[in-house]
Amino acid sequence: MYYNWEEKTSTEELKVVCNLIKNGELVIFPTETVYGIGANAFDAEAVGKIFIAKGRPSDNPLIVHVGKKADIEEIATDITKVEEKLIERFMPGPFTLILKKKPGVLPDIVTAGLDTVAVRIPKNLIAQAIITFSGVPIAAPSANISGRPSGTNIEDIKQELETKVSAVIDGGNTEVGLESTVVKVVDEVPVILRPGKVTPEEIRKEIGAVRIDKNVFSKVSEGEVVASPGMKHRHYAPKTKCQLIYSKDDQDQIFEINKRIKKYRGDVVVIGFTEHKKDIVVSESRFIDVGSKDNLDEFAKNIYSILRRADHIKAQIILIEGVEISGLGVAIMNRLLRTCEYDYTEI
Ligand code: AMP
Ligand code: MG
Predict the structure, then answer these.
(1) What is the pLDDT of residues 59-100, one digit of tens each?
(2) Is 228 in the pocket of ligand 1 (CB under 6 A)?
């Protein structure tokens, strides 16, 4: 079933979709970050279907989406002062908090057997309506085949997942374009396990301290124990090989990209900035513009659909212009590093 929310969603249709969720079916729906593929979080069998549809490793736990702050206490327990403050400030929104799991409520498959649970309250009105009308928490990872770029518009998602779910709800392009900021509080300090739209700077301002887990920017080594299972897995990657290039100096960055275009005899796609377009010597059709360096929101919003577009060209290599690691640049560089499987050059 396909529903275009903007054109004709009635309470009746909302009921149909929510009944599907209650009855153990999968539904794809928009949130403000990326689209989710959701199931009733209380239903182990339904949640199992998510892992099968995505080909997701079973050791990678899911985020549980609830409608309001009071619902958090249904699934989590022993919430500390710092956690409370984070919930107050950043929820609803593109923010996920890892909390102590309330025993005996959620099936183990949701949390991959951990004694913690990832909780989020989406702000998106469609997501809110679905959660509220369903009356159950919804376990939902990003709507994409595991390892591929996350789904941020329906065309991309339909190609990968439409036949594997009972309903797809089209809410247009997602607002943020990157997955939520994932935070766990350790010794009263918020630790960012996955950066997102809510930046380290914003968290520090609220709590007075923040840390970024070391695996946000470095490759997990074989057998290493990680704070978040998702860190271990391949992510956000097109099939074409990608390389990430960054310099504080624009001219150096452009020089390095041109050098590689030459090396690969032009069989490249460049994902780059409007202001560099005229200096990068690649044909018009092989330059994919991500907007201005001064508008990272635009870059974040479009990055996954751009990566898919770049992949369709089937070039030898995709060269991606990096950004400074601060503000939203922290999240963008985290995703791009993984897209490029850490093939990163800083000049
Ligand atoms: P996704 O659902 O694809 O957006 O990914 C959710 C992210 O949150 C993954 O990186 C998971 O590993 C991480 N996550 C979910 N639950 C937990 C948890 N209990 N502890 C640590 N990380 C978690
Ligand atoms: Mg994902």
Answers:
(1) 999 999 999 999 999 999 999 999 999 999 999 999 999 999
(2) yes
For residue 96, which atom of ligand 1 is closest to its CA? 8
Same domain, 248 and 163: no
Q: Is 60 in the pocket of ligand 1 (CB under 6 A)?
A: yes
Quick one: pLDDT at residue 255?
97
Q: Looking at the structure, do residues 167 and 248 belong to the same domain, yes or no?
A: no
Q: Could you list the residue range(s) of the whole structural domain that residue 331 is in? A: 242-346
User: Distance between CA atoms of 311 and 222, rounded to whole angstroms?
Assistant: 28
The CB of 179 under 6 Å from ligand 1? The reply is: yes
Last residue of a domain, one of 175, 194, 226: 175
Q: Does residue 154 share a domain with residue 6?
A: yes
Starting from the CA of residue 138, give the closest ligand.
Answer: 1
Q: What is the dihedral of CA 248, 254, 256, 260, to 10 degrees?
A: 150
Which of 50, 63, 142, 235 has the most ligand 1 atoms within 8 A of CB, as the residue to mutate? 63
* Sign (positive or negative) of CA dihedral 339, 340, 341, 346: negative
Residue after which a domain boundary falls, among 133, 152, 175: 175
> Considering its fold, how many domains does the chain have in total?
2
Tell me what the pLDDT averaged over the chain comes to.
Answer: 95
Domain membership flag for residue 216: no
Residues with CB under 5 A from ligand 2 (ion): 142
pLDDT of 9 over the 70 cut: no
In three-state secondary structure terms, 279 is helix
299's enclosing H/E stretch is helix 296-312
Measure the CA–CA gap between 98 and 231, rounded to whole angstroms.
Answer: 15
Percent of the chain at pLDDT > 70 equals 99
Q: Which ligand is nearest to the CA of 231?
A: 1
